[in-house]
Amino acid sequence: DWSSDVCSSDLAYSLPGGRAVVTNAQEGREAVRKSIDEGAEFIKVYTWLRRDAYFGIAEESSKLGIPFGGHVPYSMTAIECSDAGQKSIEHAYHIEIACVDGYEAWRQRVIEANDPTTVPMLSNKVREDTFELGRATPVIERFRKNGTWLCPTLSASLGVAGDRVLRSEEHTSELQSHSFISYAVFCLKKK
Fold first, then answer.
1. Which residues contact 8 (CB under 8 A, 6 or more apart)?
2. What is the distance between the alpha carbons of residues 27 and 129, in angstroms, rounded to a whole number?
3. What is the DSSP letter of 47?
4. Of 3 and 154, which is predicted with more confidence?
5. Is 145 exposed, middle or buried (0-12, 13-18, 19+ CB in 10 A)?
6. Strands 19-21, 11-13: pairing kind
7. How far is CA 48 from the centre of its chain?
8. How far, in Å, CA of 46 to CA of 59, rounded?
9. Closest C-alpha among 101, 71, 107, 103 to residue 89
10. Cα distance between residue 51 and residue 26, in whole Å
């Protein structure tokens, strides 16, 4: 089972430092209940969460009245997460990638893969050459409609842009290009 190898990213966050690997809807529901029993005030979801596990967490969180937030799992779209009741989206990484050519085909490969961590990320060249800010408009509109907050975590961009670590001489131009979408969504949310 591939999920045991990615326990740092395929999980629901409960208590500080407490994590639970979930691989299906039932395990997602159980993780929410256990987290509440242990005193959690919110649930955090991460990048490699499978769709059925995500929806199990979303349904149980809604049913029990505990907010959930976190990353947009690669198997999901930001709009799906907002519609499922996710209260906040962290880092905006998945919003940026949804604005480039080939995103949906890549996401489908992630969904269909036995081990989604083996699906190569879209190349930096594709991400840089085909990025279109206008593709974020439906996401921004849905966030407004659903009251979903975006926490762009702009400081995270100091160390990472796409799939690589930045060298200090790259910071200024990389931060401007990769952080713009975060800033744009954050500002539009406040209207």
1. 19
2. 40
3. T
4. 154
5. exposed
6. antiparallel
7. 9
8. 16
9. 71
10. 12
Res. 146: pLDDT tops 90:
yes
Length of the chain in residues, anyone? Answer: 191
In this prediction, residues 140-165 reach a mean pLDDT of 71
Rounded distance between C-alpha atoms, residue 4 and residue 176, angstroms:
36
Residue 99 pLDDT greater than 80, yes or no: yes
Q: Do residues 59 and 49 lie in contact, with contact meaning Cβ atoms separated by under 8 Å?
A: no
What confidence tier does 155 reach under pLDDT thresholds 50, 70, 90? low
CB 13 within 8 A of CB 70: yes
The two three-digit tokens of residue 129, written as one number: 């050459």
Residue 89 has pLDDT above 80, yes or no: yes
pLDDT above 90 for 169: no
CA distance 176 to 61: 36
Query: What's the pTM value of the predicted model, to 2 decimals?
Result: 0.75
Q: Report yes or no: 35 and 43 within 8 Å, Cβ to Cβ.
A: yes
Give the Cα separation of 144 and 142 in Å (integer): 5
CA distances (Å), origin 102, targets 51, 108, 162, 180: 20, 10, 15, 20
Query: Which residue bears the tokens 């921004």?
Result: 140
Tokens of 35: 């987290």
